[in-house]
Specification:
Chain lengths: 259, 586
């Protein structure tokens, strides 16, 4: 979400600490949750009104490097992307351990994945008929990209129906209620079970939190740092016999691969 | 237009362990061999810098391309099967040079003497009546003692690191070629608890090897550096015994081997009861070829082996209704949602270095194998090994939490991070026995990219299959209690736990099974087809059951035996290598 803010003139001058734990509270700011997807800067959710800090390095005007790779490749409507941001942050929220999905870059990670072969099921068996259970996303005649669109929009419609507000502006508890029903397969989504969609959302969220940063997720290896996972290490031969836990510095493929 | 190429001595479908061993042994003797491999060319250089969990472990880059071919799955004869569409659902086996052997874990077990004479030994010990109706037990037509030298040969080719199983004295003609791998805190914790309970733990024999080793063919495998990107990955250090580093290198060195990649075998061509060659498609150009040969070796793993026999109309297809025919019968597997489920122990006060490891780094025990148990007191046949291993937990695929914690949200995040390094798993691997209505045939609806029917798998779990796993879980739980785990997750195995698209694994056998009787088996103990002397079908397709540990050493041993048979066949100008035994068994 933070990255939306780079499109958001209201936020461009704010300087914030990227490590801030309270960032999650802001994630409702999601630009343009309403129809039309206009860039309605400053359209904050009720939760974020009190705290309008943003926190990517990209958008601060603080002289930090811009993340040019953070623009949308797959999602055409900003409203869909805003729902995605909220949903992934509910799955993997910011807490005392460290950043949540948004700060880790998960929404852009998912956007990039859906724009590529994974999003259009290039590697899968796609011959019809598509009969039987739709419990898994790959059993659907929709490709993964379409599943995300249908799933996210159904979450929004559910929010309108239940709470008379869109998903992005619903309270955290309301969002969780809807997502729990999706996970429990209680909602109708066209072409896919709600559980199938939810499982895909969950798995891609974890991918984005913990993949090598080359994919645009796990920003600055913060996912790995939280989990004390070292990344691409050539050898553990020197310490594998230790009976104490050994904390190591993180290494990404950018540094590991021969160039 | 199909183009017929010049004849060679042998054509081998597949470049995995099975096909690679056949190619190495034949080419060493001077025979000209053409290998056909559906997947792309790959070599060690492709694995350098490949420590990318998303690409390899999650997107399964080294696994079969399902957009070309997959399996269809159903439970019962009256259902319509549907395809396994994605490696997200289940990635089963490899493709590309070296097959699954490139990205295997490298746990190496010899199966038990009882496995090879399962019918005879069961009846001897308990009488015929202990065998449930619809269970199909069968002897292999070869004993452990006869296979022992081939196990030894496989272990020496691969440089296996290990120590003997204390419960199997006198079953080895020689030590493992290299000593066991390093010992970790997890291994020590399991070993201590197992000994306290009176068990006999020993180190898992490993194809990630403990020190640099040169095999009898002159191929060198480096000592493993415990890099933790092992299963699902190729080894960038040349430290995992795989077909590329060993048997394929030996075949190439002879000057007698040509491996054709992107070459998809579609039929075994035969005339008058003799195999003529393999018809294949070059998937880069779309051209079709026939590669004629004196002997035809099919080593494309269980599914391809069975499917090529059915598509080529060789042997009698198995009929589950009356139990006649053989091709497609005895489908067994270590199923991911049953056999491969784990009991997980969580430790609040203790952290292990779980991020470090290798594919086969662990400790195992045989105290509950088929030969140790008294089945009159149990509600299942066969037995299991119990073990723990430290493969190196990668963060996307390892987010385990104690039972009761949700699978997403605040508490999930907190606990999955807290327990990331505070866990030990106990895994059983149990014997899986064949049932009459678990089998493979050709699907009536779905086809591959060439328009040929897919292979259809029909399979159901039976009470015995569930009972053995439940029993093993309890033993795993006791071990974890002894280790001092604070929370223990035991997978729930209910009546609803059923065979589905996630079940099959790279440990799947059957379809072209071995035996001593052509009525109930497709191949003899040289993997030679009874009805077609110059056709050898090699690999787990010949297993009439799935033993209680990983299968590849047995695939390797049978492949060495088969290669010996092929050489005999070529030297002696043909003929059946095993006399058909007319006494019908089972
Ligand atoms: C992730 C993973 C971990 C494993 N870990 C272990 C372990 O720890 N211990 C153990 O014992 N076993 C393990 N296994 C299983 C082991 O890899 C297999 O038992 C073994 O590789 C089988 O060898 P194979 O040569 O019979 O088949 P494969 O290795 O599958 O080789 C068959 C080859 O034939 C090719 N082929 C198939 N069909 C065609 C066709 N129509 N035309 C042309 N080519 C074709 C395939 O592309 C493949 O290269 C593991 C497997 C996997 C996938
Ligand atoms: S763990 Fe060892 S054998 Fe496995 S890939 Fe790493 S170095 Fe190779």
């Amino acid at each position: 979400m933070a990255d939306n803010n780079s499109n958001n003139p209201k936020n461009t001058n704010e300087v914030t600490d990227p490590g801030r734990r309270s960032f999650v509270k802001n994630t409702g700011i999601a630009v343009g949750g309403v129809a039309g997807g206009a860039l309605l800067g400053g359209l904050f959710s009720s939760r974020s009104k009190n705290d309008s800090n943003s926190n990517t390095a990209a958008d601060k005007g603080s002289g930090k490097e811009k993340r040019y790779e953070e623009a949308r490749m797959y999602f055409t409507r900003i409203a869909d992307f805003a729902i995605l941001e909220q949903a992934v942050e509910r799955i993997f929220p910011e807490d005392d351990n460290g950043p949540g999905a948004i700060e880790l870059g998960v929404p852009y990670y998912i956007d990039k994945q859906l724009a590529g072969p994974y999003g259009s099921n290039v590697g899968d068996y796609r011959q019809g008929p598509f009969i039987g259970s739709k419990a898994a996303a790959s059993d659907s005649s929709l490709d993964r990209g379409q599943i995300f669109i249908n799933g996210l929009r159904t979450m929004d419609a559910e929010s309108q129906k239940r709470f008379d507000t869109n998903f992005v502006k619903a309270t955290e508890d309301q969002q969780l209620e809807i997502m729990t029903d999706f996970a429990d397969d209680k909602v109708e989504v066209k072409g896919i079970s709600s559980k199938g969609f939810f499982n895909l959302l969950r798995s891609t969220t974890l991918e984005g939190a913990y993949c090598d940063p080359l994919y645009g997720g796990n920003r600055d290896m913060k996912g790995w740092k939280m989990k004390e996972y070292p990344g691409a290490i050539a050898s553990y031969a020197h310490m594998i016999e230790e009976d104490q836990f050994v904390k190591m510095d993180q290494v990404s493929l950018t540094d590991y691969q021969p160039k | 237009m199909v183009k017929t190429l010049d004849k060679v001595d042998a054509v081998v479908v597949g470049s995995g362990w099975a096909g690679g061993i056949a190619a190495a042994e034949l080419t060493k003797k001077g025979y000209k061999v053409v290998g056909l491999e559906r997947g792309k060319a790959q070599k060690r250089e492709d694995f350098v810098g490949a420590k990318d969990e998303l690409r390899y472990d999650v997107r399964k880059l080294m696994f079969q391309e399902l957009n070309k071919e997959t399996l269809t799955i159903r439970n019962t004869l009256d259902e319509t099967a549907t395809p396994n569409r994605s490696n997200d659902t289940n990635a089963i086996n490899g493709t590309a040079t070296g097959g699954s052997g490139v990205h295997w874990n490298g746990m190496v077990y010899r199966w038990l003497p009882t496995d090879f004479e399962m019918h005879t030994k069961t009846v001897e010990k308990y009488g015929e009546k202990i065998i449930p109706k619809d269970m199909q037990l069968q002897d292999w037509g070869i004993t452990y003692d006869e296979l022992e030298k081939y196990y030894d040969q496989f272990e020496k080719t691969a440089g296996i690191s290990g120590e003997p199983d204390p419960l199997r004295p006198g079953q080895r003609s020689d030590d493992y070629p290299t000593p066991p791998m390093k010992e970790t805190d997890i291994i020590r914790t399991f070993t201590k608890a197992a000994k306290e309970l009176g068990y006999h733990p020993y180190r898992i024999a490993s194809a990630n090897i403990s020190e640099t080793y040169t095999n009898p063919d002159g191929e060198t495998i480096n000592g493993c550096v415990y890099c933790a990107f092992c299963e699902a990955f190729g080894c960038d250090f040349g430290a995992k015994a795989d077909p590329i580093a060993t048997v394929l290198a030996t075949a190439h060195k002879s000057g007698n081997y040509e491996l054709r990649n992107n070459s998809y075998a579609v039929r075994i061509i035969h005339e008058n009861g003799k195999a003529v060659g393999i018809k294949y498609v070059d998937t880069e150009t779309g051209e079709e070829f026939i590669q004629p040969a004196d002997i035809v070796v099919v080593a494309g793993f269980t599914f391809t082996n069975t499917r090529l026999m059915l598509l080529s109309e060789i042997g009698k297809p198995y009929n589950p209704k009356d139990g006649t025919g053989v091709i497609g019968s005895h489908l067994t597997a270590h199923q991911r949602n049953l056999t491969h489920t784990r009991v997980r122990g969580f430790f609040d006060e203790k952290k292990f270095n779980r991020y470090a490891g290798t594919g086969a780094l662990g400790v195992t025990m045989d105290d509950f194998n088929v030969e140790q148990l008294d089945h009159t007191k149990l509600d299942f046949l066969h037995g299991f090994c119990l073990r723990t291993s430290q493969r190196g937990d990668r963060p996307i695929t390892n987010n385990h939490v104690p039972a009761g914690v949700p699978s997403w949200g605040k508490e999930f995040k907190d606990k999955s991070i807290f327990y990331a390094n505070r866990r030990i798993d106990v895994q059983q691997q149990n014997g899986a026995l064949a049932w009459r209505e678990n089998y493979m045939d050709l699907d009536p609806t779905y086809t591959d990219i060439f328009g040929d029917p897919l292979l259809r798998v029909t399979s159901k779990f039976h009470d015995q299959d569930r009972n053995i796993v439940r029993y093993a879980h309890q033993r795993g739980k006791e071990l974890l209690e002894q280790m001092g785990a604070d929370h223990i997750n035991i997978p729930e195995i209910t009546e609803e736990t059923e065979f589905d698209k996630t079940s099959l694994s790279d440990h799947t056998g059957g379809g072209v099974v071995m035996g001593d009787n052509p009525e109930t088996s497709a191949v003899n103990n040289y993997s030679q087809v009874w009805d077609m002397d110059n056709l050898f079908v090699v690999g787990a397709s010949s297993f009439p059951l799935m033993g209680s540990s990983n299968p590849t050493a047995t695939v390797g041993a049978l492949a060495y035996r088969a290669a010996e048979g092929m050489i005999k066949f070529l030297e002696n100008g043909g003929g059946q290598l095993v006399k058909k035994e007319e006494t019908a068994k089972v």
